[in-house]
Amino acid sequence: MASFNLTQVANKAAQKLMVIDSSGSLSTQQLNDAKDIANNLLENWSVQRIYAISAPISVFNLSSGVQKYSIGTGQTFNIARPAAIEAASFQLSFGGGSQSSELKVLTAAEWSSLPDRNSTSTLPKFLYYDRGFPTGFVYLSPVPLGGTLEVTSWGALTQFADLTTPITLQPGYARLLIAGLAIEMAPDYEATPGAALAQDFADAAANIRQLNAELMGPEPPIGLVAPNPNQPVAAGGG
Fold it and tell me: Are the CB atoms for 163 and 5 separated by under 8 Å?
């Protein structure tokens, strides 16, 4: 991992465009413009699971009869607000034993169509995360009577606060950010990104996507709709 501030990243991007030479630097106004572009890139990548850096596991205590929990910094589930919840499981301990189950993470449509979602049970089966901003909410069904919830999630990439405060980038992300920023900055300088720069970005993106697919799993095909958990599968075909 390496740490870079915005000035370093933007100057390297400008060098890629041949706007400045290796000893030059962008002006303060140009750097501030580059900061906005870089943060927009980081924000956009933050909502794409294949660019997620990590998938940390968090464990939360549940209250009996409570279905809805706020999640985010300072909330009931006190972690940085996740961009998405990838997986979840539930465990209930009693006496000398325990019960556990994997929870299905539902889409909004699946949650809306779930019958009797307010019923109670010792073992919940479904989790829905509404991705509310700035505070998200997690819903469980059936409503559990205590226990603990384990969630695997991914969150936003760190953005630049100013021109000089560094952020730490995982291996491979600096190359992606510099090349991506150069391409996004090009119109401001009436520059045309060359084939080498486009290939540099494509290679960096492919490397990260391949690595992250090992963690997050492959992305579903575009247009694929998850099945309704309560919809029976039709037999036969044709």
Answer: yes
For 43, 59, 60, 61, 170, the CA distances from 79, given in Å and listed in that order, are 19, 10, 10, 13, 21
135 by Cβ neighbours in 10 Å (0-12 / 13-18 / 19+) ranks as: middle
Measured distance between the N- and C-terminal CA atoms of the chain, rounded to whole angstroms: 53
Tell me the pLDDT tens digit for each residue of 166-184: 999 888 899 999 999 999 9
Q: Which CATH number fits domain 2-51+157-216: 3.30.70.60, 1.10.3230.20, 3.90.1150.10, 2.60.40.3080?
A: 1.10.3230.20
Q: Tens digits of per-residue pLDDT, 115-143? A: 999 999 999 999 999 999 989 999 999 99
Residue type, 104: K
| More reliable by pLDDT, 208 or 1 | 208
Helix (H, G, I), strand (E, B) or coil at 5: coil
What is the pLDDT confidence band of residue 40, given thresholds at 50, 70 and 90?
very high
* Strand 82-94, strand 97-106: pairing: antiparallel
12: Cβ–Cβ under 8 A, 6 or more apart, which residues? 178
**For the whole prediction, is pTM greater than 0.90?**
no
Q: How far apart are CA 91 and CA 101, in angstroms?
A: 7
Burial of 58: CB neighbours in 10 Å, binned 0-12, 13-18, 19+: middle
Domain residue extents for the chain: 2-51+157-216, 57-155
